[in-house]
Design brief:
By secondary structure, this protein is of the alpha/beta class. Helices cover 42% and strands 22% of the residues.
């Protein structure tokens, strides 16, 4: 069993297709097929079966895949240690971040890091928190910049979430909506506070179920004991913000996203009472027990420093 064989099985499992895997591995398709056949013969059982969506792992294949991910991660960690010996002159960082968060945070971090470590290559994966967690567990990412699981939900026990900052959520609603007049200015809140219970009969604009903003939204509405009708679902919070301004419904979004965009017709922003725990927590997420290179640690420390300064 070689690292090449482990990589072959992992890549075919990830792509569900021999042809796609061969292109990704830069090997001929017949050669890859023969290698898989030899692997199956050596362990005495099938690793893949063909399903409706392409190649699918058998139970033995699942165990082989898990083992392959662990061993390949060990090899990757070893390469990272060698990079440390080069005093950060060469190497790479593989990390994840959500699309919207990347637009806010990366311009603050990358310039300083590239000035300090110009020889370190950055491999950035932009995707949902759900996908990032999967890639952390499979060893494809060193760390992720994301938002921690919502209070009251079950966090993945294999991951460590280092909280950097907490940002409250606000309501976005049209200035034409009569409920705006019922919001009350309160000390300690940036905007007038509207009782979430008053939104029971209002149409809701929200994100997809796997997105953290949706998790916070669902948690707040559950605590308020209301079930507004979902009027529109989008992957992009900016779309919902604009629709709220046009009186299509209301939406919840994090306060740190409010000043990112400028619109000719912005919505009205209203604060949410602290009793609803309407917030999310920015965090650095890592696989428990995983090795972090000096380059990883330096990049993470820059994030810590920038976020600490930003929150003052």
């Amino acid at each position: 069993m070689t690292t090449r064989e482990l990589l072959y099985v992992k890549t075919v499992a990830d792509t569900h297709n021999i042809s796609k895997a061969a292109k990704k591995l830069f090997v001929a398709q017949p050669s890859l097929s023969q290698s898989l056949q030899r692997i199956e013969e050596s362990i005495g059982t099938k690793i893949f079966i063909r399903g409706s969506e392409g190649l699918k792992l058998t139970y033995a294949g699942e165990r082989y895949y898990q083992m392959a991910c662990k061993i390949l991660k060990i090899y990757d960690d070893f390469e990272s240690e060698i990079s440390d010996m080069n005093d950060l002159k060469t190497g790479h960082i593989s990390f994840g971040i959500t699309n919207h968060l990347g637009a806010i945070i990366l311009p603050m971090i990358i310039p300083q890091f590239k000035d300090e470590c110009p020889g370190i290559h950055l491999d950035i994966f932009e995707g949902s928190t759900e996908l990032q967690e999967e890639k952390l567990i499979s060893g494809d990412l060193d760390f992720s910049v994301m938002h921690a699981p919502v209070e009251g939900t079950e966090a993945n026990p294999s991951l460590n979430y280092e909280i950097l900052a907490r940002h409250p959520f606000v309501l976005a609603i049209s200035s034409k909506n009569p409920l705006v007049q019922q919001a009350v200015p309160m000390e300690g809140y940036p905007y007038p506070v509207l009782d979430v219970k008053l939104l029971a009969d209002q149409p809701l604009l929200t994100l997809l179920k796997e997105q953290r903003i949706r998790h916070v939204t669902d948690s707040v509405l559950k605590k308020a004991g209301i079930h507004p009708e979902i009027k529109f679902v989008s992957r992009n919070y900016m779309t919902l913000e604009k629709l709220a301004a046009e009186d299509i419904g209301f939406t919840l979004l994090p306060s740190d996203y409010v000043n990112v965009n400028r619109y000719d017709n912005p919505p009205v922003f209203l604060s949410i009472d602290k009793k609803y725990s309407a917030y999310w927590s920015l965090c650095i997420t890592t696989l428990k027990g995983a090795f972090l290179s000096r380059a990883d640690e330096r990049f993470i420390q820059i994030i810590r420093d920038k976020m600490s300064t930003r929150e003052r």
